[in-house]
Amino acid sequence: xxxxxxxxxxxxxxxxxxxxxxxxxxxxxxxxxxxxxxxxxxxxxxxxxxxxxxxxxxxxxxxxxxxxxxxxxxxxxxxxxxxxxxxxxxxxxxxxxxxxxxxxxxxxxxxxxxxxxxxxxxxxxxxxxxxxxxxxxxxxxxxxxxxxxxxxxxxxxxxxxxxxxxxxxxxxxxxxxxxxxxxxxxxxxxxxxxxxxxxxxxxxxxxxxxxxxxxxxxxxxxxxxxxxxxxxxxxxxxxxxxxxxxxxxxxxxxxxxxxxxxxxxxxxxxxxxxxxxxxxxxxxxxxxxxxxxxxxxxxxxxxxxxxxxxxxxxxxxxxxxxxxxxxxxxxxxxxxxxxxxxxxxxxxxxxxxxxxxxxxxxxxxxxxxxxxxxxxxxxxxxxxxxxxxxxxxxxxxxxxxxxxxxxxxxxxxxxxxxxxxxxxxxxxxxxxxxxxxxxxxxxxxxxxxxxxxxxxxxxxxxxxxxxxxxxxxxxxxxxxxxxxxxxxxxxxxxxxxxxxxx
Length: 502
Prior knowledge:
Blueprint: H1 10-16, E1 25-29, E2 32-35, H2 36-52, E3 60-64, H3 69-80, E4 84-87, H4 98-104, E5 108-112, H5 116-125, E6 130-133, E7 154-160, E8 168-173, H6 174-187, E9 197-200, H7 207-218, E10 223-226, H8 233-243, E11 247-250, H9 252-265, E12 274-277, H10 285-294, E13 299-303, E14 310-313, E15 332-337, E16 343-344, E17 350-356, H11 367-373, E18 374-375, E19 378-387, E20 393-398, E21 403-405, E22 408-410, H12 412-420, E23 425-435, E24 439-448, H13 456-464, E25 475-478, H14 492-497
């Protein structure tokens, strides 16, 4: 493979990675392979039309599109013109994202052609020019607006939820993303090779989907299978088989659905060489199921949008430790603190801070949130971890998810792990609920395995035998599914609001 590590901008990597191989297969889309040349023709058309629309250096385009060739074409076009791209969740809709779009101050808003009529008036109401786009063919011309320019170093603005409820976006530099995509293949040696074909099905407004499943292969000169939506799952399975996809980048929810669909049909995927997950905690029991139905286990990773996104991941099947996310990528420094920010020993349980070239400089036009999470070059992940003697990281829990019962810390992950050991339990989520006496108490939501039953009282007694008394759930409810974000994360805040009647 070529040495691309010295290039400093993403559009340079995009060109250099395919130099001399422009007519080779680059991405699989709608049952056909596209060459790099075909994709680049679309990017050149986008560049010409963006420039004619008034797009200037330091401007941003906001995009509400599913995974498709146009996402890559618009990204490359914006970067070549010295601007950036802000991918948004198309399912949320313009009305619900009005404050986020205003905050991003974009030159224009690009939406899927079939969504244009429904989004035209809401976009006009917030003063943003809107253009409908095909997913894989040239757009019509349009006229944008001039927002306040930012640095040409910005490549992508990823919108993310703020603790205050106000919109915020992580502004990633070209250098942040390049460092991450340089480090990941060095860390995971079996990831990138001439026969690798990545699955690009995670949404592009999520850093794991955009940067790892999409940009990493594209900017490394390897192929990928682009699918606009994970559901229906059977379509994804067929696409994997037809395209020869052999590297799966996923979140645990996607793996649960994928393995469940295969198990239902007693089907086994052949040729998969690597599965990597991130974005949420992995139930360790899924590793054995993955080996059964996909032929390989899971390399569990950990990252954050602010870190472009990968911080740590297991390197190989042989060296991984179940329940741990592996060691940090080489370019990070780490430190551990208590919840008040006081330093702790590296192997003590505490909040993880990271520093390195992958860490974004802060939040877009948001000094308050930047000041709250950054200490100069150090970023507070908000995650409570333990690091062992080999540098492997165990994510104990989100600092914000910790349940405090009568002054004692309860980590949801510990409660969930015990509940999941019960033979009738498919999955479990533990959250805190306000309690007048103890401050908080533990409540849990359970999805049962098909055909099996257990009562809440039986599960509480099961926990009493295995957990300290203050960690035992005082309420247990049964659900068919959990509320999920568009990126597949369980929305714990919604579960906290659900009342369980004893």
